[in-house]
Write a structure and sequence with these properties.
With 231 residues, the protein is of the alpha/beta class. The chain has helices at 20-27, 47-57, 77-82, 94-104, 106-115, 125-128, 166-175; strands at 3-7, 35-39, 63-66, 86-89, 119-123, 131-136, 144-147, 152-157, 182-185, 189-194, 197-203, 210-216, 219-225, 228-229. The two termini are 26 Å apart.
Amino acid sequence: MKQIIAMGGGGFSMEPDNLLLDRYVLAQVSKELPEVCFVPTASGDADGYVERFYHAFRTLPCTPSHLSLFQPNFADLRSFVLEKDIIYVGGGNTRNMLVLWKEWGLDQILKEAYEQGVILTGLSAGSICWFEQGVTDPLNAPLYKLEGLGILQGSHCPHYDGESNRRPAYHKLVLQGEAQAGYAADDGAALHFKNGQLHRIVSSRKNAHAYHVELEGNRVQEEKLTPDFLG
C-alpha cells in the first residue's frame, strides 16, 4: 500500500494541544511503535521546530527521529530513510527545500520510500511537495505555482482558509491555465491518498474542509469536500 497524507495545516506545529491529525497518521501503520522521521528542511532545520516535534511525538506511541541535511545525522541517507515507517515533512520554504533535496538525492529516495510502503506526510511545504504542482508563498511576494515531486497528480494549495490570499491566487492560476486542477485544504484538514487515489479526508477541526478545484469552460469550479472529523 502506497500512502500520502497531505495536511493543509495543523498537526503538532500548528495545534500543539490537538494532535488528532498526527495520531491519525500513526494509526495507518500496523505496528506498536512506528518509526517516525521528521524532515525540517523547509525551515532550515530550525532548532525550535525540531524540539516541538520531539516534545509532541514523545507523548505518542511511536519512535521519533529527525533528518538533518544542514548538520547531517546519518551515515547513509538512503538506508536512514528507507528504514522508517513514516516520513513527516515540516513547513517553510518549499522551493529551497526541493532544491536541497535534489542536491542530496533525497527527492529520488523519497519516491523509492513511497513505492516501498513508507507513509509520506506533512503540512504546508510538506504537503505541496508530493504533488505535480503547488501554490506557495514567498515572504513579501505574490503566491506562485511551484513544481513538486509529482508523486500525486495535479496541484495542491494548503492553508486555504488560514491565509486570505490563498483562494484567489489558486483560482487565478487555475483560470489562467498555469496550474492544473487539484485539491485545496484548510488548516486542520488532511487529504489521505492510497495508491495515488484520494481515499479519505479527515480533520482535526469541525469547520475545516477540503476542495476540488478545476477549470470548467472559462470559469473555475470549486467543489467543497466534507471531511470526517476525528474529534
